[in-house]
Structure formats: C-alpha cells, structure tokens
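Much of what follows relies on a compact textual record of a protein's fold. Each token is a code from a learned vocabulary of local backbone shapes. The record below shows the convention in full.
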Amino acid sequence: MEAADGRTLTVTFLGKAPGGVGPRNVRIDGGRRVTGLRAVEVHVETEEDPELDDRMHVVLDRTGDTSAYRLSIVETDAHGRPGTTPYRGFDQRYHSAGFSFRPGRPTPFDCAAEEPCPAPLRPAPLIDRTARDYERLRTVLDRMALTAPEWAERHVPDLGVTVAELLAYTADRLAHHQDAVATEAYLDTARRRESVRRHARLVDYAMHDGAAARAFVALETDRPVVLPRGAFRFAAVDTGRLDPRDRPELGTVLADEDLDALPPGASQEVFEPLGDAEPALYPRTTRSASGPGATRSASCPGARSRPPCATSGRTAATGPAPGPTAPAPGPPKPPQVPAPTRTPGPGPEPEPKPKPPAVRAEATPRAAPSPRAC
C-alpha cells in the first residue's frame, strides 16, 4: 500500500478484488495529531489477466500526519459505518495493512534525521621523506599494512614483499649514485683520484696516477739461510703508538736527500773487474756490463756459465762481496748497506771476440745510489 499523494491511497490485493467494496467498507485507524480519517471515494481497478492482481484507489477526506496508520477492509456495522469484522472473503490475517503519509519525503513535521556514522578513519601512514638507505626504504611494508590491511603476507617469497624489497634496493642504489656525484663534484670532498685529476685539469695542472711507495730492506744473518719464495714476511711497526723509549732503533737508511743530490744525468757503472782491480761504482754512465760469473747478487743461482739474470723491472743490490778480506788500517768502518738499482730492461751487447758476452743494466737516476760505493 502506498499514498500516491496526500489524499489518495493505492491498495494492491493479493489476487482479485472482491465485489461490492465501497467507502463504507474502508476503515482508517491510527495517527497522532490527525485522526478519524474517512474514505470518500473508492475505485477498483480490475485486471483482465488472471495472473495480475487487482488494485483499489481510495480517496480520503484529508491528509494525515507522519505517524503510522492502518487501512482495513471490513463489513459495515448496524449504523452503516465501517465496523471491525473482516469483509467477506478476506482472511483474518490479511484484511488490513499499515501505511504512512509522505514516505521517504522530507517534511517539517519529521524528527531530525540521523546522519549515518562516517567510516572510521585509519591513521595516516608515517612517511619518512628523508629515507635514503635500504633498511629505511624497506619500511614501505609498514605503510602497506595501513593502506592495504587485507594484505598481511610478510614472507620473502611473496610477490608483494619481493616488489617492495626491489624498490628499496633500486632506490638505495639511486641515492648512492646521487651522493657520489655530489661528493665528486667538489675538490674538497672528492674521494676518487680520477675526480681530483679532472679538477686539476681545470687549472692546467697535469696530475699523474701516482705510484706505490717502496722501500729496500737489508738483513744480516749469523749463518746462511735459504728463504723460499713466499715463505717470509716483513711486519711494520707503528712507532707512533709506542713510547719514544720503546721505539726500535732504525738501521742504515738511504734518505731521499742522498738520492736527490745526484744531478739528472748522473749514472753508475756497475761491474766486477776481470782482473785485480777493485770493484766500485762510478758516476759516469747509466750502463753496466758484466760477463759470465759476475757478482753473485746479479747472477742466477747455480748458473756460473751464463749471463746474470737481469730482467726488466728488477732491482739489483750492489755491495762488497762476502769473503775474507784484509782489514784496512785505521778505525773500523760502519757496515755498508747495498745500494739498490732498478733495471729497465736487459739486452745482449755484442763485444769483440774473444771477449765473453755481456749483459747491460741501466739504472734510473732516482734509484741510483751514492756517487761512489766500493
């Protein structure tokens, strides 16, 4: 049942409408402020199709309020007014139906409509916009727990976890490259030698790649010792952390000043004489010649009949040969440290026959020893 307008009711029957229903058979009960409504006109709309239900339009004398009403199809009483007995042919349970005026329409007589409760607001995710490393970027999983609470998988094989970790890894690498570019862009903060060299080129300064530091160590033993290759090590001592009284004494060291004292063209001729002359170093030439069976420091072990083993990049140490020698008169002299000499490259040098073949070695000026060392 529905109220089409303020006074007309449309009643739908469950089946076909009974005959003879008039305004006196319609009873209207209910209401709070407006009561005693009466039907003034009844019109039954009959459907020819037996499958369709009939309808009845009831016109009232006035409009009711917004409270609940009830319409009943009843028999008339002794005074010809609507009674309380259901109309003939109607079931006791279905001879009446409830209705209301202005259903679903705003009205000044209605109570204030209750607004539906809004959906509970979820807490906003905490976004750290300064995160630049993998561990902090991986906390995107915590944000997903707020934005997508239905996704609760946290195992590593899960596709969502894999994508989140991949994004964190990629962002971490991008942040690293950005920091590296910003660091290498300034001379004060550059860490790579290549970056410093490029900064130096801006002021027309040619900077080389540098060279590793080197040092020559001479040892003396009380008996002959054979040291297999790779079986010995030199351990450096950080003297800066030791007390000055506990620091070990340094042996004879060739200072850089002694090496720099040589003129650019200085050279040494290294040889072991074939006669009775004394072996010595002379600042005359950068080449030296020695025949088979020359100095033991430059000869291959066990190869007395072939030239010395002088190859490119090797260092030769020159000094007095071991053996009994006559002591010189006067105060004893301090032991001499062998002078290191680097050989850029060996090569056979032909000599007139019947002289034996010779091997030459060229010493670099900086690696040259003192002007004379016997």
User: Anything to note?
Assistant: The chain is about 15% helix and 20% strand. Residues 123-210 form one domain. The first strand starts at residue 2 and ends at 3.
